[in-house]
Write a structure and sequence with these properties.
alpha+beta, 9 helices, 5-stranded antiparallel sheet
């Protein structure tokens, strides 16, 4: 018999899931409209989440994430055993590729850096653990989007603006969908100056036993070094690292 879920807990996390990098505050109207609650029920959930520290209200009727969420996020980054498995594997890949390599997980706001191994180049590009990356203009984000169902993708992009971060950024849904089709077919995603003008990246998915993506691996550096030959090498090396992670997690 399947375990019956606690509906209030599920609904609380759905409310927390309304936050993103673009939407940093919500109201009872937001909750009621998007989650199909009455205003009275929305107020009750928001008040409860505020009392326990998951939310805070700095002006009447407006809520943002509270100190408990920040504390739990920091604790998760410090104690997550997956990071200790991933770090030596991406370090070896970074040495082989002579470029920085990162592992990221998905969050409501976009891919979040879980572990990173900077290259040993005199000048390199570094990203801090905990950094949330744009979902539509990065190789990591596009990998995540490509594996979602149409319904899930629409929900993820509902509160997200396809902002033009560079001249190369895809800004329309039709263009993004076309690129996601290509990513699904080839098994990897590219960023050729879409997030920052001179930055290139290659990303591959890491699949769980349930065939769901639970991580992405990516290598990134100056765009001028990311030619077709390097992309081919990077995809092969990152996929090998992905297999090593899966083998060490089972």
């Amino acid at each position: 018999m399947a375990t019956k879920l606690n509906g209030s807990v599920v609904k609380s996390f759905e409310i927390l899931g309304l936050f993103s990098s673009e939407r940093r505050e919500i109201s009872a109207n937001t909750v009621a409209d998007e989650l199909g609650m009455t205003l009275a029920t929305a107020h009750r959930f928001l008040t409860t989440l505020t009392i326990v520290g998951a939310l805070t209200s700095y002006r009447r009727g407006v809520y943002c994430l509270g100190h408990r969420i920040e504390e739990l996020g920091r604790l998760e980054r410090e104690t997550n055993p997956l990071a200790s498995v991933v770090k030596p594997i991406i370090t070896a890949a970074s040495i082989d590729l002579n470029e920085s390599v990162m592992a990221s997980r998905f969050s409501q706001g976009g891919p979040i850096c879980m572990a990173v191994s900077p290259s040993n180049r005199p000048i390199n590009i570094n990203i801090k653990v905990g950094t949330i990356l744009p979902i539509h203009s990065t190789a990591q984000g596009k990998i995540w989007l490509s594996t979602l169902s149409k319904k899930e993708r629409t929900a993820s992009l509902a509160a997200y603006s396809l902002a033009a971060l560079t001249e190369q950024t895809v800004q329309d849904n039709e263009g993004l969908e076309k690129e996601l089709d290509q990513i699904r077919a080839q098994g990897f995603a590219l960023n050729r100056g879409e997030n920052e003008p001179d930055l290139g990246a290659v990303s591959v998915p890491v699949f769980s036993d349930e065939k769901r993506v639970f991580l992405t691996l990516s290598t990134f550096g100056l765009l001028s070094r990311f030619d077709d030959a390097f992309v081919e090498t990077a995809v092969e090396r990152l996929n090998r690292a992905a297999r090593e992670i899966v083998a060490n997690c089972t």
